[in-house]
Amino acid sequence: MVPPNSNSPEGSSNCGREMELDRIAVIGSGNWGSVAARLAATNARRLPCFQDEVRVWVYEERLSTGELLSDVINMTQENVKYLPNVKLGPNVVADPNLESAVKNATMLVFVMPHQFIDETCEMLKGKIRPDAKAISLIKGMELRDEGPRLISREINDQLGIDCSVLMGANIANEIAVEQFSEATIGFKDDKETADKWVQVFGTPYFEVTPVQDVEGVELCGTLKNIVAIAAGLVDGLGMGNNTKAAIMRIGLREMIRFSKLMFPTVQDATFFESCGVADLITTCFGGRNRKVAEAFAKHGGKRSFDELEGELLNGQKLQGVLTAAEVSSFLKAKNWEESFPLFSSVHAIATGLLPPSAIVEYAELRKIVGTPELHV
Ligand SMILES: NC(=O)c1ccc[n+]([C@@H]2O[C@H](COP(=O)([O-])OP(=O)(O)OC[C@H]3O[C@@H](n4cnc5c(N)ncnc54)[C@H](O)[C@@H]3O)[C@@H](O)[C@H]2O)c1
User: Fold this and answer.
1) For the chain, where are the E strands, in sequence order?
2) What confidence score (pLDDT) does residue 9 get?
3) 147 C-alpha to center of ligand 1: Å?
4) What's the rounded mean pLDDT across residues 43-53?
């Protein structure tokens, strides 16, 4: 059961805010969502400016045992499907009802595969506090007619609330067992709220740094998943460390180039934060995108990413292939494909236009795109 709120309102001055205690809701309960809830719950218990209870919206599903996932989480404090063997905390409440999960929440943490954000925001309209603050831990983009749109922007536009982002070298299972890592919070202009988000997530083993570059931070987290697919292909093809390092360097160059084309305000320094090179490195060596791409290459591209995702990820979702498709359609519309050979090749390989080996054969790509070079 959830303990009664033991925080005293007087203590809230320690957090630099008025008397009302902030209430945190986590929207999403996959692998990273569960770890985010665990971090937030630890700080909600520890810091006087937060209400103890952290509600987590669970996209309900029936487990193979016949039980409902939310019931099991509330009984055992464990997300047995997406984060087994890790206690989330006594103050975490799993709620399958989105409206009651976010009721009275002042701090909303969005963490779900990006393909579900649109419908979730739609369901949240009119259900959240108008003064709520949001943060997105989601890596990916929404494809719109005018080009790809960042998820933080989607949340901001659909719900009319300020949305920061948290990205970094954060493989969820490692943070769940409290191995030291870092993360970056990207914020637009509200430093006070960014500092509050640092309090929600920061612990001695999870060091969080705020940076005033929301687009740069989010694009790092999103685009590196495409590079991770390329790294996985290289692994599956049995190529060595030099090749992987080259792929990562080319990928980072495309990440910077693409980010600056979309948002000229993006800062170079952001790519040296945890959300930049550090996340790129961890994702190209661990993580689900690399893993599935490796299997794809080992099967010679004959089994689809969808099929391998279902087989290898136990309900978890792959982001890199979808992001490559979204980025590619934007590059195609702009005639910029040849300036982004790695991004374009990943998409062409994932859709069967090119074989996995084309990840290191950019001449092959030129045969199917053949557009003028853009120097950015
Ligand atoms: N897992 C990690 O290590 C990690 C680390 C950093 C960032 N991220 C990012 O966090 C985000 C969320 O990933 P995750 O690891 O928490 O999820 P996940 O891939 O582990 O799990 C999938 C989740 O999607 C939910 N779902 C399925 N259908 C849905 C629907 N129609 N509507 C809403 N939800 C639905 C499932 O219930 C489950 O909670 C992604 O953008 C991911 O890139 C993940």
Assistant:
1) 24-27, 54-57, 92-95, 107-110, 133-136, 141-144, 147-150, 163-167, 181-186, 206-211
2) 35
3) 23
4) 97
